[in-house]
Automatic annotation (TrEMBL):
Residues 434-550 form the SET domain. Residues 558-574 form the Post-SET domain. This is SET domain-containing protein. Residues 1-19, 28-44, 170-180, 761-773 have a biased composition (Low complexity). The lineage of its organism: Eukaryota, Fungi, Dikarya, Ascomycota, Pezizomycotina. It comes from Zopfia rhizophila CBS 207.26. The keyword Nucleus applies. Residues 56-68, 639-650 have a biased composition (Basic and acidic residues). It is found in: Chromosome; Nucleus.
């Protein structure tokens, strides 16, 4: 135990378990020694001193006091209760302390070793303060009032120089401090752990509370939303309801979910929670992944519905969406795979069009509304089954009626004939959903391109604008749009016109001779509407949308060059050039008739005889002006024809010279082949190889006449080329009647027949015989008649001669008709009828009651060519 006593553990300040026998240490010596900075129990210390003995700095006081004191007997218990530690100061004291320690009954080794961790905190704190903590002021000043400058700056008491001469004590003090430090650290760790545990528990509790609060809040908000929606309707009629709403809005009065349902029920207003709207752009927007090209649109839709596949529309990959492009298509409707237009060449997103006033739906202007025959629309209904899905055989579809709840039993999910309803839905989406935008073209002004894909025959955009009468249309063209280059006029129903100058984006869709869209008209809810639909090939993202304008040029002035750039381009917007005359003539007929009708005031269709001199004069004036106009048109037509013929002549000349060259080449090669063959056969090989010898050998052979060999061929070729040259000269100069340049040479339209002496390889072949040359020469005659008919010499009707004379009379200047002007009613009528008849024959169309000068403007419900939807261009002459 003695060695143990010298050990650091003996310096433990934890005295609770230490019992020290102090009876033997009444000697004041012990009290003389400065108390080490430990709480080793003093062996002799008065009660007073013991009160302050817990501080090392009290040692001098103890020392001072103990000097005169007499040892007082102390019981073991008393000493322990007083707990007045006092460390020995000197070796003697130490020794005596050791000896006294011999009487110590128990030591808590753990405590002495500083490893006990369960020492009561209160006790520890009280005693550690003495050792470790920085002393408080009260500590620094001892009871005697002198400053404790012996306190070590790290908080440990520093023994006086006279007191610290004992290294053991010094060491003890240090060790005590270290032990205390260790205990403190371990205790701190414990405290931290405990604090952490507490924090976690507290956090969990808070989280639970928060969750509960959140749930309550959520219910409250939902309830408020519902009740607000319900009440807002009744707000105006019932103010008390508003009060209730406000009350309900208070979170504190949030009802339970059951209450919710009860309250929502009466109003039957259910506010749906908002769903996330995905931006549908990128590859294949609008294209369904599981689209099966073999099935119709409706069947596809049905299939999708039955499958209930949730389709990821964001960037579907070509492996899904492009499948139908790669598969064998039974309908042979192929499309090239294309990357979206702006993947590598981004375009300006928005083209701003000046002066375009948008209209989203048709609007009647002026008299149009009054004149619109609403009861004209016949009702149509279908009896399709859900399996049919209002497909190809749907009666409404066939009749160009859109299905709706009134004429179709199917629901909108099962019915496939509701394109305008689909469009309405789509229009609510974003612009990618809507799927079209204005673009700028290189040489055709603005155009429209797709920003998504469209299935074959899928609706794209409505053609809507102002619905105007023909009279209004004429007025606008004459005055308002006089200087315009583009017109946005479309023939419509009831002989009216949609003027999309103020209208939808569809007005910017350009013409193409090989279009990818179609303009169709449907009756929707009893009213006709027009829209652009995808063609049978469908539309890919980025494609420019086009349709065939089927342009009615209205006047030869307005025939426009087509720049669609397709292989089968007709060269002009509208019908083929040879149909121009038909159109202009029919326009003249219609115009003349209209004017005469106006003068006569008769009902449409018939021209009755004028019965007043005034009317007669008027009709005569009209007839004259119409004559002048007709002449003008004919002159224009002739000019156009001339131009076409000139082009054709140039083209023919090119062909002829090419063929001549080819024939010459073939003749020469044949000749040389024959010569070579002969040389080879007749001459020895070395001679043939010798350059010097070869001319001689040829000469030799030439001099040998062979009947029917070279001479006739030479002559024929020379003659043929002479004939060709002559033909070309004729074609270039005098003769203008040749086929148009772009007439395709198909089996159905052979370029030449036996009576057509144009220069071809066959004619050249026939020219190889001298006997046929004469025939070829004689057969040559102008071709123009066969291709482009002259209005003054029309071959279109069987009674050519009669028509010719009629036309000549009609078209000829008055002087040629003996300056006779029609003066009587009969003669006027005769003249008009004759001219009308003649013109009709000329153009080969007899469209009775064609109307007011617009061919095909009657729309779909009219007879004749009225079933054609046409764009209209230009003003009447
Ligand atoms: C209905 S607008 C079409 C939109 C027009 N490009 C624009 O910029 O407003 C019809 C006019 O466009 C032009 N156009 C349309 N397609 C054309 C084509 N294939 N070739 C030449 N011009 C065309 C013609 O000037 C025509 O009169």
């Amino acid at each position: 135990m003695a060695s143990r006593g010298a050990s650091p553990s003996s310096t433990s300040s934890t005295l609770s378990c230490i019992t020290v026998q102090t009876g033997k240490h009444s000697n004041s010596r012990s009290s003389m020694s400065a108390s080490p900075p430990t709480s080793t129990p003093p062996t002799s210390q008065g009660d007073e001193a013991s009160i302050v003995s817990d501080a090392t700095k009290m040692e001098p006081l103890v020392e001072a006091k103990e000097e005169p004191s007499t040892p007082q007997p102390q019981t073991k218990e008393h000493a322990a209760a007083e707990q007045t530690p006092e460390a020995p100061k000197s070796e003697g004291t130490r020794r005596s302390a050791r000896s006294s320690r011999a009487s110590v009954t128990t030591y808590n080794v753990q405590i002495l070793a500083g490893t006990a961790i369960h020492t009561p905190t209160k006790y520890l704190e009280q005693h550690h303060k003495n050792v470790l903590h920085k002393p408080s002021e009260s500590d620094l000043v001892d009871g005697a009032g002198h400053n404790s400058d012996k306190v070590h700056k790290n908080g440990l008491s520093k023994p006086d120089s006279e007191d610290t001469d004992d290294p053991v004590e010094e060491q003890l003090a240090t060790e005590t401090a270290q032990a205390a430090q260790r205990r403190r650290s371990s205790r701190q760790v414990d405290l931290r752990k405990e604090a952490a545990r507490n924090l976690v528990a507290a956090g969990e509790a808070v989280a639970q509370k928060g969750q509960a609060l959140f749930n309550t809040g959520k219910q409250t908000v939902q309830h408020i939303l519902r009740s607000t929606a319900t009440d807002s309707r009744a707000k105006e009629s019932d103010k008390s309801v508003t009060g209730t709403t406000l009350k309900r809005a208070c979170p504190s009065t949030a009802p339970t979910p059951d209450e919710d349902e009860e309250e929502v029920e009466p109003g039957k207003v259910v506010v749906k929670s908002k769903t996330k709207k995905w931006l549908q752009q990128g590859l294949y927007v609008g294209q369904h992944r599981d689209f099966e090209a073999r099935l119709s649109e409706t069947q596809n839709r049905m299939r999708r519905k039955s499958k209930q596949v949730h389709e990821n529309k964001t960037l579907p990959l070509p492996m899904f969406a492009g499948e139908r492009l790669l598969k064998t298509d039974p309908r042979k409707e192929w499309r090239d795979f294309k990357l979206p237009f702006d993947t590598y060449s981004p375009l300006n997103r928005k083209v701003k069009v000046d002066g375009w006033q948008k209209l989203q739906k048709n609007r009647f202007v002026g008299e149009a509304s009054a004149l619109w025959k609403r009861d004209k629309q016949d009702a149509s209904s279908c009896s399709c089954s859900p399996e049919d899905g209002c497909g190809e055989s749907c009666h409404n579809r066939v009749m160009s009626y859109e299905c709706d709840s009134s004429n179709c039993k199917l629901t909108s999910e099962h019915c496939g004939n509701r394109p305008f309803a689909e469009l309405r839905k789509r229009a609510k989406g974003n612009r990618y959903d809507y799927g079209v935008e204005v673009m700028e073209t290189e040489d055709r002004g603005y155009g429209v391109r797709a920003m998504r894909t469209f299935e074959p025959h899928q609706i794209i955009v409505e053609y809507a604008g102002e619905i105007i009468t023909q009279a209004e249309c004429e007025r606008r063209m004459r005055f308002e749009y006089k200087k315009n280059k583009c017109y946005y006029l479309m023939s419509f129903d009831n002989k009216m016109i949609i003027d999309a100058t103020r209208g939808t984006i569809a007005r910017f869709v350009n013409h193409s001779c090989e279009p990818n869209c179609e303009m169709n008209k449907l009756v929707v809810g009893g009213e006709p509407r027009m829209a652009l639909f995808a063609g049978p090939r469908g539309i890919m993202t980025g494609e420019e949308l086009t349709y065939d304008y089927n342009f009615d040029p209205f006047s030869s002035k307005n025939i426009q060059e087509c720049r669609c750039g397709t292989e089968s381009c007709r060269g002009v917007l509208g019908p083929k050039p040879k149909d121009w005359k038909k159109l202009t003539a029919s326009a003249i007929i219609a115009g003349t008739k209209r004017k005469i009708q106006e003068v006569l005031g008769s009902s449409r269709g018939s021209v009755s005889a004028p019965n007043s001199p005034q009317k007669k004069r008027k009709i005569a004036t009209i007839a004259n002006s119409e004559l002048t106009k007709t002449k003008k048109v004919l002159a224009e037509t002739a000019a156009t024809r001339e131009k076409a013929e000139k082009d054709a002549a140039e083209h023919a000349a090119q062909i002829a010279s090419r063929e001549a060259r080819a024939s010459r080449r073939s003749t020469i090669s044949k000749k040389s082949q024959i010569l070579r063959r002969r040389t080879r056969t007749s001459l020895p090989v070395p001679l043939l190889k010798s350059k010097k010898q070869s001319p001689v050998s040829v000469k030799t052979h030439r001099s040998v006449p062979k009947p029917g060999a070279l001479k006739p061929i030479n002559r024929a070729s020379r003659l043929a080329s002479r004939v060709m040259k002559r033909n070309v000269r004729v074609l270039k100069g005098k003769n203008r009647s040749l086929p148009p340049a772009r007439t395709p040479r198909t089996p159905a339209n052979p370029p030449l027949d036996s009576s057509s002496p144009n220069i071809t390889s066959s004619s050249l072949r026939s020219a190889s015989g001298a006997s046929k040359l004469k025939q070829t020469k004689l057969q040559f005659r102008p071709l123009g008649r066969d291709i482009i008919s002259d209005p003054l010499d029309s071959p279109m009707t069987s009674d050519d001669d009669e028509d010719d004379s009629t036309m000549r009379e009609f078209a000829a200047p008055p002087s040629r008709r003996g300056n006779k002007r029609p003066t009587t009613a009969n003669s006027v009528k005769k003249t008009i009828n004759r001219s009308v008849r003649g013109t009709k024959r000329m153009v080969g169309v007899a469209k009775a009651g064609a109307g007011l000068g617009f061919k095909g403007m009657g729309g779909l419900n009219e007879g004749g060519s009225g079933s054609t939807i046409r764009m209209i261009t230009g003003a009447d002459d």
